[in-house]
Amino acid sequence: MTVCIAGACQHHGEPRIVLCCDSRLDFGEVGSTNNACKVRILGCGWVGLIAGDWTRAQYFSGIVRDSITYKRPTSLESAIRCINAAIKRYQRSPIYATGYPVELIASGFVNNTPQIITVTNHLPVSEDFTITTLEFSAIGSGCNVANVILTAREYHAGLSLKYATYLCYEAKRCSEKAEGVGRGTMLVYQSPMNPETLYRGSLAVVTDAGIAHWEDIWGHLWKVPLFDLPDFPPDYFRSSGAIPGLESTTTDPSPQPPSQE
Predict the structure, then answer these.
(1) What is the largest distance, in Å, between two alpha-carbon atoms of the chain?
(2) Can the peptide bond before residue 124 be classed as cis, meaning omega within 30 degrees of 0?
């Protein structure tokens, strides 16, 4: 139970990716914790966000890391081939079992272009994994809410880093309405790989003060009461009789009894 969000954007003409997730981890009847890190370094400039069954998602992300660091993909197609190979290896592993959700967002840059790859099995409908590439993505139990918010806001890769950060943060906070999504928030900015960061992503982690900054903005923009709405105008309603086929609400809709004749 979680939410993880990734969105491509721009910062002064340079490509960036915003990574946002909660930090809650449930242990069933034992309880839960709010200090789990759901960000994983996949190597060669690629970074992962994990959701689903915690043990299996961590294991799967490790297989993806091994595949990427061994093949060192230089194109989107080669990165997808690495992930497909990892899926097959995971399904052959002793830890694999049916009925467990495993989700991963792999984010990186190809020729300075942000790439966001989403990998998920679609339980309970299917055990099969699908791979999609979009300008933004969300996984976990809060993904439906997050994706709706980002779609409604018309999120796209040309947004500025500041605006993209707010939209990802907004989507994460709104997704807390879904079961299992924690209040804790982690924000990370991903930059293109450079020679000094060959086997890890170029990441900047937002501090608690930075999270509080976006919380304050969200509180002013989202959690505000509606202004006093005006009364309905005189011509607000029209007669139902003016609409063909619409019966009056005062007419008895029951059929007439049959004639005795």
Answers:
(1) 98
(2) yes
